[in-house]
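Backbone shapes recur. Consider a single case.
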Amino acid sequence: MKKWIASAIVLAILVFGSVIGFNMFKAQKIKEYLANRPIPEFPVTSITIKTEDWTPHLRAIGFIEPIQGVTVANEVPGKIVKINFESGQKLKVGDALVYLDSEVEKANLKASKGRLPAVERQYKRMLSLFKKGSVSQGKVDEAEADLLTLQGQIEGYQATISRRIIRAPFDGIAGLRNVFMGQYLKDGTDIVRLEDISRMQLRFTIPQNDLNKIHIGQAMDIFVDAQAGKTFKGTISAIEPAVNYQSGVIQVQADIPNKDRKLRSGMFAKANIILPTLNEQIAIPETAINYTLYGETVYLISEQKTEAGKAFKQVDQKIVKLGKSKDGDIHVLSGLKADDIIVTSGQVRLSNGSHITITESDILNKPAKIPAL
């Protein structure tokens, strides 16, 4: 019995010993494999930083407006007896657009003019008799008042008749006509939209912190969706003297030449206010920037060597301070210098100390023509 127990104990020791030994052997082999495993290298694209001239700009948005634009309306009611223009017609200042019925006013004017010679003679007669002492000053004043009253009536009828002819207030292009022959118009009825589009305006707002960066006459590049790929040149013509205390922004107005009539009022526009050019600046692709909670960083590539002397490329995160962006590039204010090499794509799997291989790729190059969707 004792021999059997001793044999069982020896057998158990052998079994457990072999299991423990196998696990130790396995752990040692895994450790050796991990120690000898090559460090993974991640493919990335890169650029070597070079200094260049950088022309920054302020971005703004707004709507295109005409230099002059008004909806022409009648001041007095009346029936249309003549329409003297067509939709889309070019008009000159003073051109008659619509004639309203003015027969009653013309008849009253004719009657008043018919009485004028007699009233004038009566005034002259009273004035002559007064000089001879035959009439009092009151008679002269009464005759003069009658003459002035009649002259005022004539001028009033002439003004009323003139107001019944609706004229173009400035040179421009007529829009779509909204009235018809024989139509009775109440005062203030919209007849046609008239706009001078030889020169357009853009109104926009900027933050008050950027007020010291703009001035009258400053150049701007303006873009509208209706003219894709075309840049319109403009200049700042007016700056509001007061800042809006509720929003902290200030209104600005720019003039835009429009000789080819490509711009129309109401178009949504984006604008770049051109700032002075800075020399020897660093600009990098926006794709190289990593936006994190603790700031913006880039991966800086450096050459390293193993203990055995084998060369490899390693990346380290570098915090950078950024300025304005333009055309896919962004201005770097600090954190990088000329001849630094940085990662432009492939950063997703990287961390400090990662090994990388540099590959060539044109995926980030801007196409000559944007493909249609």
Remarks:
- The domain at 102-163 is CATH 1.10.287 (Helix Hairpins).
- Helices lie at 2-36, 103-132, 137-163.
